[in-house]
Amino acid sequence: MLLYSQSAELRAIKTLTSPKLDESVRSTWLGQLSKDFFHFEPCQRAFERIDKLAKKRFRIISFKALIEDPSLDEDMRDVLASMDEKPAIKKSQRKETLETLNNYRKIRILYFAAKTTLEAMGETEVDVDSLIEEHAQAVARANMKGSAEEFFLNFGAHDSSDAIINDILAGKIRPRIKSGFAEYDERSGGLPENGVMIIAATTSGGKSTIAMIISKIMYLVNKMSVLRITLEMQELQETQRLLSNLTGIPLRRFTQNKLTMPDKALVKRKHKEYVAHGKEHGITYTTISPKGEMTIDGALRMARPFGHKVIVIDYLGLLDGTDGDDQWKALNAAARVAKNYSRETGALVILLAQLDDATDKLRYARGIKEHADVMWQWNYSKPEQRESRVIPIQVSKDRDAELYTFDVGERFDVMNVTMNGANGQVHKPDDSDDEEKPKKGGFGKGKGKDKDKKKGKKSKRKDEDEDDDDTGKDALS
User: Fold this and answer.
1) Which range among 36-50, 310-324, 360-374, 445-459 has the greatest average pLDDT?
2) By C-alpha distance, which of 29, 63, 28, 32 is closest to 49?
3) Residue 144 CA: distances (Å) to CA of 43, 151, 304, 371, 395
């Protein structure tokens, strides 16, 4: 019985490296595959090389470059170059190829499990229970859509618990990372390094802004690659918001084309620093604004080959397939897919969701909370709340940590929030603040100097902007 299809494996390699296919299609294809789908050694080594370079360079190598890559054995490159197989250009062809590879993957798992059993049966002593356990694990791996290492923690018969007990006694804990929100980091130790976080707020409540702040902290402080998939805004809007946050320049001046020369100089400097940080640490802060509809599966497949450790989806209700009569089912399923993805990749997946302003509950699908490791929620719809400019963020779920509420000051005019220690006090900006001066937020060092106060310019600035209101109450959030 054949254990693999040489032609199907080469077709998969040719598809991954074909210039006839858009980069996004090939990255999605790469995310659907793994080393376990390949058995023919030249194809297996080729896939490993493609996957490694994609994570390192954030692009997929061409077939020509692959067969010229000195990292691959010369004989294997010769074999790949000599084989005549066309890439799967049509979607139906790629689906058929994937099914073929997956079926052979299952055959190999069962074959080697049976081979191990037959060899064990030839011995004078047979541990039947161990053989049954090995078969059970083989069947579990075969039933999985992709590849993942299975670990069974047994206490008692077939005990495998010594290692985990030793880890606990040695003080090993589940890693948590800084969120940038002082009180939360102090009381909870930060966000989990992997898992699912839900950020839920009422309409225009600032969930996109809070998620952007967390994303920035992950990139700058925790030195992690971040992918933001935004279904509401385009790259221009996302970048304007990020620059407003980094510089303290009011968002309105970006969106209304009112940037001053000092503003532009500050933007260039902050942008240069942001890029340099990523290059120094080999990380990336990526924004994707899909032009068409996107499912949760498609979003995560796109992310998988590039190894981002934090993925933000803004927001759940805009994903394709999450509307209609059974919206609650679709949203629950999307959260479950994110949970499985996190388990397989070790990434932190942050999902934004809508909160009902009357009931303070997740709109359409309260069940998605069950799949979350952490959930922050807040209602910022009442006029008196917006007048106070204080956001009460409720930690309504946090595995292994307490539940409580912490306050932050709202500065949506500069896409930021402010904090003062861990006691919930916030800084409320004075209405008399010179709006030409970048505001100091709770994040960043606020080093920008107000160069516009030079002699002869102050009164001119005042005349230009006296009709404008930068209080932030109506700023997009």
Assistant:
1) 36-50
2) 63
3) 22, 14, 17, 19, 34
Euclidean distance between CA atoms 453 and 448, whole angstroms: 13
Phi, psi of 104, deg, nearest 5: -65, -35
Which among 74-83, 128-137, 250-259 has the top mean pLDDT? 250-259
pLDDT value at position 425? 34
Secondary structure (DSSP) of 258-300 = ---HHHHHHHHHHHHHHHHHHHHHT--EEEE--SS---HHHHH
Spatial neighbors of 26 by CB under 8 A, at least 6 apart, are 15, 16, 17, 18, 60
Interatomic CA distance for residues 49 and 61, integer angstroms = 9
Tokens of 412: 């949506």
Quote the pLDDT of residue 185: 94
Rg, the chain, Cα only: 26
Confidence of residue 143 (pLDDT cuts 50, 70, 90): low
Whole-number Å distance between alpha carbons of 323 and 336: 17
CA pseudo-torsion sign 451, 454, 460, 466: positive
Q: Using CA atoms of 189, 344, 341, 198 in order, give the dihedral in degrees to the nearest 10.
A: -10
Token pair in block for residue 249: 């320049």
SS3 of residue 192 by DSSP: strand
Both tokens of 399, joined, read 């595995």
Q: What are phi and psi of 7, to 5 degrees?
A: -70, -40
Per-residue pLDDT at 55 exceeds 90? no
Q: How many CB atoms lie under 10 A from the CB of residue 55? A: 15
CB neighbour list of residue 464: distance below 8 Å, 6 or more residues apart: none
Task: State the Cα–Cα distance between residues 51 and 341, nearest whole angstrom.
Answer: 18
**177, 191 Cβ separation under 8 angstroms:** yes
Distance CA(10)–CA(17), nearest Å, equals 11
Instruction: Report which of residues 11 and 343 the model is more confident about.
Output: 11
For residue 274, say if its preceding peptide bond is cis, omega within 30 degrees of 0. no
Whether pLDDT at 444 is above 70 = no
| Paired tokens of 437 | 């001066």
Note the pLDDT tens digit of each residue in 355-405. 887 777 776 666 788 889 999 999 998 888 888 999 999 999 998 889 999
**Residue 455: how many CB atoms within 10 A of its CB?**
5
CB 137 within 8 A of CB 152: yes
Length of the chain: 477
Report pLDDT digits (tens) over 144-188. 554 433 345 778 866 778 877 887 887 777 778 999 999 999 999
Q: Pull the structure tokens for residue 361.
A: 């509950």
Give me the chain's average pLDDT, please: 81
pTM of the entire predicted model = 0.65
